[in-house]
Amino acid sequence: MNTALNRPTALIADDEPLLRDSLARSLAAAWPELLLLGQARNGREALEMFDQLQPDIVFLDVHMPGLSGIEAARQLARRAQIVFVTAYEAYAVQAFEQGALDYLVKPLDEARLDDTVARLKTRLQERQAGAAVSTQALEAVIAQLLDRLGQQTQLASTSVGGAPPAPKYLQWIRASVGATLKLIPVDDIVYLRSDEKYTLVAWSEGEALIRTPIRELMDQLDPSRFVQVHRSVVVNLHAISHVTRGLNETADVHLKGRTEVLPVSRSYLHVFRQM
């Protein structure tokens, strides 16, 4: 612990600046005493900043370009408390719960963050008292995670038995609403509608504008759930109440519990004929 300031200190490493800032704000609310010393953009930068700043805790994104968070953790684990930040619940292996390491899943859950903060406080107190997690336990956990990361990387670049790897679809969309960063679960999205510069994201709790083109989003959405019904409109099939036919081989999509009516152009009418 930082003896000069008598406050615990931390470093955040994530290649997404918005998510770094979001975690910093969440930590400030959940643990006001924590002093954030810096933010790194990748694993290698995290190691350099750690050597310079010597924080008590390092929050590491698992997937970062170059040196991954897990690879960085291998070099830091004996010198700091490590918390992995990941978009994949699969990394929440049992070993984390054994006290060797901890994890947070994006988008951050407030209750989960509170649990992590409580465990970190306990570990810092134990470290001051001379207790420590064994080096062997830390190495075993990190080796297990590196193995899992390697398996995922291999599956992403090769096929097994001639079958293509299972696609990983978008889990949430980041959108700025005023000064707030919103992490919108994709499952909650009702529809997307674009104009020349922006895409409107309409979800169960509101609306937001993002700059990502709708064609780019379509490549990342589960096609069994989201369909394009117009060159500027994508709709969640689970949100559709009914479809009414219009003139000239067009149609209108009516939504459950909402007043908006979305157009279906001739080019996309076949989507509903096939259902």
Task: Report a brief summary of the structure.
With 275 residues, the chain is of the alpha/beta class.
Widest sheet: strand ordering: 2-1-3-4-5
CATH fold node name of the largest domain:
Rossmann fold
Averaged pLDDT, please? Answer: 81
Question: What is the general shape?
Answer: elongated
Total number of helices: 8
What is the succession of H and E elements? Answer: EHEHEHEHEHHEEEEEHEEEEEH
Could you list the spans in which at least 5 consecutive residues all have pLDDT below 50?
152-160
Q: What's the oligomerization state?
A: single chain
CATH superfamily of the largest domain: Response regulator
CATH class type of the largest domain: Alpha Beta
Largest sheet: 5 strands, parallel
CATH architecture of the largest domain: 3-Layer(aba) Sandwich
Helical residue percent band: 25-40%
* Helix-strand makeup class: alpha/beta
**Approximately what portion of the residues adopt beta-strand conformation?**
25-35%
Number of structural units classed as domains? 2
**What is the strand tally?**
15
Distance between the termini: 61 Å
For this entry, give a set of tags.
2 domains, elongated, five-stranded antiparallel β-sheet, alpha/beta, 275 residues, 8 helices, OB fold (Dihydrolipoamide Acetyltransferase, E2P), Rossmann fold, single chain, five-stranded parallel β-sheet
